[in-house]
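User: Is it possible to get a 3D structure for a protein together with its bound compound? The compound here is zinc ion. I've pasted both below.
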Amino acid sequence: MPKCIICNVTSNEMPLIQFLFKDTAYHICSQHVPVLIHNSGQLANILPGMNEVVDPDPMVH
Ligand SMILES: [Zn+2]
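Assistant: Yes, that's possible. Here is the predicted structure of the complex:
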């Protein structure tokens, strides 16, 4: 069952959005979509290879 990569909530509890990263499908709940958009650097330890993405604002940690 798809789960949010951050909080592991399932689509039974929250709307989940599927996205692709390096041709792999992941799911994120509507609550954590802003993290994906604005603080993607926080996902570096969740998504393999995410740390290759340049963090535009390193002060937001
Ligand atoms: Zn979540």
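The chain has one helix and two strands. Residues 4, 6-7, 9, 29, 31-32 surround zinc ion (CB under 6 Å).
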